[in-house]
């Protein structure tokens, strides 16, 4: 079975992990984990902020559309009279 989860890939991953432990020592992995955790937290915050900005932009656009429709309706009512 080929792909990401094939046994060959896992063996390479384990070999690289052992090499990282030998070269970097025991302090390297906790620092790496901390950096990874902060990166994930930053990504989540960025996604949340982007989602909030998107929702506010949609709300503004809907409000603008409603006000434009109301202005057109007022104009049409003035033309009928």
Folded structure, characterized:
This protein is mostly helical and 81 residues long. It has one domain (7-80). The protein has two helices and no strands. It has helices spanning 7-24, 28-80. It starts with 6 loop residues before the first helix and ends with a helix.
What are the segments in which pLDDT stays under 50 over at least 5 consecutive residues? none
Calculate the terminal CA-CA distance, rounded to whole Å.
Answer: 77 Å
- What is the domain total for the residues? 1
**The biggest beta sheet, please?**
none
Q: What's the SSE pattern?
A: HH
Shape: elongated
How much strand?
A: under 5%
Helix content: over 70%
Radius of gyration, in angstroms, nearest whole number: 28 Å
Overall SS class: mainly alpha
- The number of helical segments is 2
What is the average of the pLDDT values? 83
Let me know the number of strands.
0
Summarize the structure.
This protein has 81 residues and is mainly alpha-helical.
Short descriptors:
88% helix; 81 residues; elongated; mainly alpha
What's the structural blueprint in terms of helices and strands?
Blueprint: H1 7-24, H2 28-80
């Amino acid at each position: 079975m080929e792909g990401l989860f094939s046994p060959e890939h896992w063996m390479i991953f384990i070999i690289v992990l052992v090499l990282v432990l030998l070269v970097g020592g025991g302090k390297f992995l906790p620092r790496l984990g901390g950096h990874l955790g902060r990166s994930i937290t930053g990504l989540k915050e960025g996604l949340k902020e982007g989602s909030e900005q998107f929702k506010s932009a949609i709300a503004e656009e809907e409000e603008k559309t409603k006000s434009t429709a109301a202005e057109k309706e007022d104009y049409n009512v003035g033309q009928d009279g």
